[in-house]
Design goal:
The complex is a heterodimer of chains A (417) and B (271). Chain A is an alpha/beta fold. Chain A has two domains: 218 residues, 3-Layer(aba) Sandwich (Rossmann fold), CATH 3.40.50; 114 residues, Coagulation Factor XIII, Chain A, domain 1 (Distorted Sandwich), CATH 2.70.50. The longest helix of chain A is centred in the middle third of the chain and has 32 residues. In chain A, 28% of the residues lie in helices and 33% in strands. Chain B is globular. Chain B has 271 residues and is mostly helical. Chain B is built from eleven helices and no strands. Helix content of chain B is 70%, strand content 0%. Chain B has one domain. Classes of the chains: A alpha/beta (417), B mainly alpha (271). Chains A and B meet through helix 1 and helix 3 of A and helix 2, helix 5 and helix 11 of B.
Chain lengths: 417, 271
Amino acid sequence: MAEPKIIVDNVSKQFRLQADRSTSIKELFTRRGRDKSVDEFWALKDVSLEIPEGSMYALIGHNGSGKSTLLRCIAGIYQPNGGAVHVDGRISTLLELGAGFHPDLSGRENIYMNATMLGMSRKSIDAVFDDIVGFAGVERFLDSPVKVYSTGMYVRLGFSVAVHVQPEILIIDEVIAVGDEQFQRRCFDHLYSLRKQGVTIVVVTHGLAIVETMCDGAAWLEGGVLQRVGTGPEVAAAYLGRVNDREAEQREETRVRLISSDAGAASPERAESHEDITIDDVTFANADGEDVSHIVHGEKFRLRIHYTASAPVEEPVFGFAIHAMNGVHVTGTNTQINGVSTGVVAGSGVAEFAVPAMPLVPAEYEVSGAIADRHVQRLFDRRDREWRLIVRHGSNLPPHGLMDLGGEWSFVQEDPT
Amino acid sequence: MTAPAKVWDYRTLITNLAMRDLRSRYKKSFLGWMWSLINPAVSLGIYTVVFGFFLGGNDSALLAGNGRTKSFALFLFCGLVVWNAFSSGVNQSIASFLAAGPMLTRTYFPPECPIIASTLTTLIQTSIESAILMAFMFALGNVGWTMLLLPVIVALLTLMAFGIGLLVSLLNVRYRDVNYLVGIALQLIFYGTPIVYRLDTIDTKIAGIDPTSLLVLNPLTHFVEAIRSSLYLLHAPSLRNWIAMVLSATLSVTIGWWVFSRKAPRFIEEI
């Protein structure tokens, strides 16, 4: 493992909660005897982590979990109340949209301004000036004041300056997300190439796919407390697991509330949502039709939607969706897409979808089920990611990625002439 | 103490901030840079008319170093150069530090930078005013070697204003009253410095105390005296002047920078 470039050692950061606290000297005297602890808020509590040189590191967590505070501590903008941050190298930061841009100055002047703020000399800015402008794509507006720039141009210019100042450490808050898809991709491509050049990158992101695929390491913060440190996929999975659990809890709560309110006077809302067909359960079965807790990769499997219809319904549409744990929608289909007629459905029953060979690679997946009317305009019932589908290794080595194409290799060799 | 080496690393930023300040100051004005010449020249003209002709302030004690010239306006202007350097130095520090707030919370750079930059722009303005003053002295044939001391005096004055600027701009971030207090303090200091009057013409006692003994405690008094003697009277400033100037400049910068570098990071979080 490479030498740590950034060491965050037991860092705590406290803020005073009241924003308009003694801003006048009068208050300084009148407030003296009051207990100050009530106004304190710990944005970070004993956070320790090491970021190795040349790695891409992600900080994840909910809004207000302390990610940005940690970034600012690393960047040297905030001084921690406890602990210390050791940083070895020149830092470039992109912490906020158009940070350090002066609205009245032109794009050109702002590039120089911003780059010098990041510690560049005039000569070295001249050398990369064209690259900065080219990457940001603002050639035409270079001499217009940046206040007339669009949000996208603002972000592009800010990002472009931050990555072109030859930093050894690059610190980026959740600002790239403002750009469009194409720009985001270019940003990450650029970050990737910087990382290959040995630049250490720390990002705050909500894109778990990025954390999984691009980041060597990640840390998950919650309420200022470090929850987990590890490789990108590990931390992303742990984080997502928590998010799902919480969501499930909330759903459970809602359900309990609805049921208990049902015990009283039936509310009209409840009556409306009490649909003609409901999903009782979704189960998975093997080739023999036995319900199983997990499916073996490459083997036949059946997905069963158990339903109960309180009244006859003509041509309902049954559907399901499978999501990977990182939120990627892997697949999903319904009877309408597959051109299956369901006829008139009444009473209880099972809708079964059979797959000859499980194409998904071994992992855990989440399954949703839904039943809609014949035009898929109105949902009778929909249960989001409520079931866990576990795919296990079979005898064959599974392929990379998400699924098995099930193809076959063949070779045609040309005769050497 | 933030190592001055660190500030030196950011010298490009400092010059950029200063240039931006100067450029935006005269942006969209027709005469542009000319204004920084016109303003002091016009005020000098006004003083000449008011004090030279209306108030008849040209008594014999005001005889300049060349033995011919008697101009209260030039005498006054010497003091005003000092005053402008000090007061705008302090005021610009407060304004620049406050304006740099949004940048300071989003990017790291030594927080002294904006204040150093504003001090530089003030220094440029002071140099222009001094040059105009010198031009008049030359025109009147009031020239002597002591004029060469001017850069040293201006440098010391700038350092003193810088140190105080660091302190008050820092305090102003937390207690916005400071801005108003500084306004009042500056008015008091203006009259507590022999700018529109002369130290040697005071002959009253207030409650048994000679006001002169209090006025010499004000470092600006010595800067005004030093500039007057070296530019107008054409003799070297007294030793007392030199000691007061060097001492006040050193103390101000040392204390100002020490406090600033210790407290600034915390205060910035509140800008």
